[in-house]
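Why should sequence recovery work at all? Because a backbone constrains its sequence more than one might expect. Tight turns favour small or flexible residues, buried strands favour hydrophobic ones, and helices have their own preferences. The token representation captures these environments compactly. In the example below, the structure is given first.
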């Protein structure tokens, strides 16, 4: 008599090979997928081991953290002089804004940061109210706080005293907020069927994209007053803001136009079949899809705009780099390590902001693109 074994339950699945999952699999696929890729990986690892330890030592162990003046930094030139940054931090953040009134800058920045987080947080409640507060109420409140209003007990502070990180952030924020809707209008105008609107949009975009940004800043600084009524004066800080917004809007328009052209014709035909007019079709159907498609390009323009704010110093605006340059001219802190430390601080500041914008845009692109992938 023969016996047979009949399995009542399926054999449990074996785990995949260790080399096909996890960090090891990622390294094989991305770092050592070919001999050339492996050689480049090993070369970069060797370069990192050669450069990173001395850089960390320069920034931490060998650095001067506390000093009353630059004498100690001049005596120890093997490390950074963070004492200089600590002593000049107030000027680097606010420029010559009166110290007793800097709470107004802090309050303005705190309100702006809170509203921005409200708008950018995907799960935030009542974001429409947040948009109303940010685009309508906040500019008025910020203007009153920063410039002052004697009727409200706030002393006036001339823009010539503004400077540092505060001015850089304000310039970039105004440029970003103004350039995006203006760029959308220019993109729609360039695709318009009305010849005059299309021609005006094309001329504006091509002229702005065909001249250097420095030229636009000079023109805004010197020619803007010519368009004002007799006796009217434009603020020295307002002129470069106008130039930045117009210049960035031209590049933004081309990014948006690329998104509009990438939409299938069926989206337009479906919207018209539903009886939607042009503006409703554009606002509800076309633009939401087009802007999602060009998120990387839009954020790339934002990052470029943020870095280009450093050029406003050529027309007399005291941005963070200009404030840093003024601080480094202090003879009390003169020394070889002051320059490298100062520009390292500026580089970290720009990198932190640009990297944050890049990571947020990548997260939003993945979130908004899930429906298209499905």
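From this structural description, the recovered sequence reads:
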């Amino acid at each position: 008599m023969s016996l047979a074994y009949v399995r009542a339950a399926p054999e449990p699945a074996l785990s995949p090979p260790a080399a096909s999952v996890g960090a090891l699999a990622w390294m094989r696929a991305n770092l050592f997928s070919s001999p050339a890729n492996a050689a480049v990986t090993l070369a970069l690892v060797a370069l990192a081991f050669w450069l990173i330890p001395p850089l960390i030592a320069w920034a931490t162990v060998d650095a001067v953290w506390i000093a009353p003046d630059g004498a100690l930094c001049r005596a120890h030139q093997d490390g950074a002089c963070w004492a200089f940054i600590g002593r000049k931090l107030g000027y680097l953040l606010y420029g010559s804004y009166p110290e007793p009134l800097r709470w107004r800058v802090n309050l303005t920045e705190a309100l702006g940061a809170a509203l921005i987080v409200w708008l950018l947080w995907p799960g935030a409640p009542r974001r429409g109210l947040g948009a109303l507060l940010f685009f309508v109420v906040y500019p008025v409140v910020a203007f009153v706080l920063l410039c002052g209003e004697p009727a409200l007990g706030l002393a006036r502070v001339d823009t010539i005293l503004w400077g540092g990180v505060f001015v850089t952030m304000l310039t970039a924020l105004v440029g970003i907020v103004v350039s995006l809707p203006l760029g959308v209008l220019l993109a729609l105008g360039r695709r318009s069927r009305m010849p005059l609107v299309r021609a005006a949009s094309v001329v504006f975009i091509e002229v702005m994209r065909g001249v250097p940004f420095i030229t636009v800043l000079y023109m805004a600084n010197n020619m803007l007053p010519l368009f004002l009524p007799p006796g009217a004066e434009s603020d020295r800080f307002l002129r470069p803001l106008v130039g930045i917004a117009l210049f960035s809007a031209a590049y933004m328009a081309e990014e948006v136009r690329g998104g509009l052209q990438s939409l299938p014709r069926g989206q337009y035909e479906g919207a018209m079949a539903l009886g939607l007019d042009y503006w409703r079709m554009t606002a509800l159907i076309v633009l939401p899809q087009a802007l999602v498609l060009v998120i990387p390009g839009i954020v790339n323009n934002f990052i470029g705009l943020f870095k280009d704010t450093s050029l406003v110093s050529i027309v007399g605006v005291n941005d963070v780099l200009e404030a840093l340059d003024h601080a480094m001219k202090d003879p009390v802190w003169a020394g070889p390590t002051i320059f490298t430390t100062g520009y390292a601080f500026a580089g970290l500041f720009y990198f932190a902001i640009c990297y944050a914008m890049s990571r947020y845009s990548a997260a939003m692109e993945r979130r908004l693109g899930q429906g298209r992938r499905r």
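A few observations help interpret the result. The chain is about 70% helix and 0% strand.
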